[in-house]
Amino acid sequence: MTNVAQEPGASRLVATAEDIASRVAAPMAQRTDQEARWPAEAMQALGESGLLGLHVPRRLGGLGQGLLALAQVTETLGRACSSTGMCFGMHCVATAVIAAKATHAQEECYLRPIAAGRHVTSLALSEPGTGAHFFLPRATFQRESDGFLVNGRKSFVTSGGHADSYVVSAVAPGSELDPGTFTCLLVDHGSPGLEWAPPWQGVGMRGNSSRGATLNDVRVPADNLLGHEGDQIWYVFEVVAPYFLIAMAGTYLGVAQAALDLAVEHLRGHRYEHTSERLAENAALTERVAEMWTMLERARRLVHHAAWLGDEGSADASKALFAAKIDVADTAVAVTNMAMTLLGGRGYQENGKLARLMRDAQAAHVMSPTTHLLKAWLGRSLLGLPLL
What we know:
Elements: H1 10-34, H2 40-49, H3 67-80, H4 82-100, H5 104-115, E1 121-124, E2 140-144, E3 147-157, E4 165-170, E5 183-188, E6 194-196, E7 211-221, E8 225-226, H6 233-269, H7 283-312, H8 317-343, H9 353-361, H10 363-366, H11 371-382
Parallel strand pairs: 1-4
Antiparallel strand pairs: 2-3, 3-7, 4-5, 5-8, 6-7
């Protein structure tokens, strides 16, 4: 397998992702879904290829890539196995958060191992009491002489129990209602007091090991503070939101593309026995395929444009990023539904590939930041109002 750290061009990145997707992720996708099984083999292959270091600076052995590369790689993985795309995407978001203001100790302890493919990380921001408002944590931290003591609950932690570290948000006691003062800390896997709930049994995205966690007096070294105490609202809109929205948009583009692929394959390969007409020659069906392709390509162009604006540091990036995730969510649900009508009874098969894609697509609207929240942010941005 080619290690892309040697050749970091965009075409090489996508080619490497395609190799892993077809060789490792796709053959395991059905089992990953049916058994709600974390995609360990695919994540290991991504590590061996160097792709886990997508957002680690090159001086630390990583690929030093930005949002556009993330969109392309997650789409490639999501097309083969959405759970793999999700786990990889969340790892990338957490990596970007670590890298944003990394200290020398964090570079050596976390970013170099990530670049070497030996470390998987993830986010632990959402909580059961605040829903989509992941920027309002109730988990608390207290300063101690040698670090921090963290208490609280987290929910929907992707790769929960499998990642090597987690970016955990918390607030100082008494500031739970202030959306501008929360703090991010790196909590290592196996830390005493970090307890995992059973894997959440979702309708789709069943292999991402989305789990709740309880932190009972978890001791976090002082070196594991990300940035400064109370400044992490900066991370939400400068790092977490851009990378998360692009990672999710890319993954769901892959889901929609896989559904379109199935529809095209079906129409090309079947014909009506009573007329000998190929389904691909039926005008009504070809129009549906055209509609699906147009929706998907429009969404893809918006995602890539938003990613490019983000990489360029444009003032318009946030609005484009919000819109891209909104549009992709609509597209993924619509395209998978349209594919089902084109495949008919074959598509409706229980545990079939299209049924899996339809179930996976439903998460696009409800995964925080939800479509409703993104529309609110986009509208407030356009009206010149503060987002929070």
